[in-house]
Amino acid sequence: MNTLKYCLFVFIVLFSVHAAASDLEISGLAQQGKHYELIRALQPQLDSGKPVSGFQLLLLGGAYLQVRKYHDANAVADLMEKRIVAGDSSCCLGSDLSVYPQIIRAAISLDQGEYEEAIKQADDAFSHLKQKQFFYRSQLIQTTNILGVAHALLGHVDQAKQNLERIGNVDISLSILGPEKYVAMARIYMALKEYGKALECIEDKNAKVGAHFTLFYDPSFQDVPKYFIRAKSLYETGRIKDARQGYDQLLKHPQIAQFGSIYWLVLYDLARMASTEGDTAGAIELLKRAVEIIEQQRSSIDSEAGRIGFVGDKQVVYQMLVSLLLDQGQDAAAFEYVERSKSRALV
Description:
Elements: H1 5-15, H2 21-31, H3 35-47, H4 54-66, H5 70-85, E1 90-91, E2 95-96, H6 100-111, H7 115-127, H8 136-153, H9 157-168, H10 178-191, H11 195-202, H12 223-236, H13 240-252, H14 260-276, H15 280-298, H16 304-312, H17 315-327, H18 331-345
Antiparallel strand pairs: 1-2
Helix pairs in contact: 1-2, 3-4, 4-5, 4-6, 5-6, 6-7, 6-8, 7-8, 8-9, 8-10, 9-10, 10-11, 10-12, 11-12, 12-13, 13-14, 14-15, 15-17, 17-18
């Protein structure tokens, strides 16, 4: 979930004087994209019954979502909702947290191929947005992004483009929302298979944090989704050499494993390139790594429908791997991945 950037900026820059040291440390981990480190810092505190603020729960839920630990992300969303019902729905001088459980659930449903449910949850969050609070613009981008991608994947082109327009109209002045806004638009264009327009979005001069903000805020972790979208768009528009360079840089990025929605796709596209170049052995190894990541993420899904939906768009990884293994005469290994593929999708 590429969310929380504006929240973090407001929290760290405007309210750090009033925050506990632990809050600043946790916010710093989220700011740097260190999701596993954030989980290790907060989850034991939560398990032991020690106080965890609503804002910290938001960061924890976002971290679990980023690394694709869906069961835990859902559990945090449930806990946030209980806190909200009990009256704890604000932070940072009244900024509203009440829509985040729905945003987290909508993002999970989107990942798991349950597009109608994603639309339902995101619509509910959108209808409850409160304009006169710090997080409004970020929440507007988040909800309309989920709606736009889900509608695009369902073939609802008009609805997808309506949400594109909503995001395009978001005023990003005096904020750090440039990357979030243009990544969101690019994601919808990618779901529509309009990769040229996705590339235009990600290369827009406004798709970055202004220099005056970087005095207080390190935006480097926001670049990972941007690098991926750029490389993917270059690949799909035939600029293979540039795409390969971008993917190679992503694979070397120290935080790549902490972006679960991107990592397996990077490996898959690199495998496609390796196969085209005649490096079958390299392609096989990349695909095996991608399968391990997919199956690790799938193991954290609670529902059978969710597990089936999650694997739906990832069958291409198994199919390519099986085909290459058969070409290499590795029939036993190919059969193993056929069985794994069948059991994962319940075909």
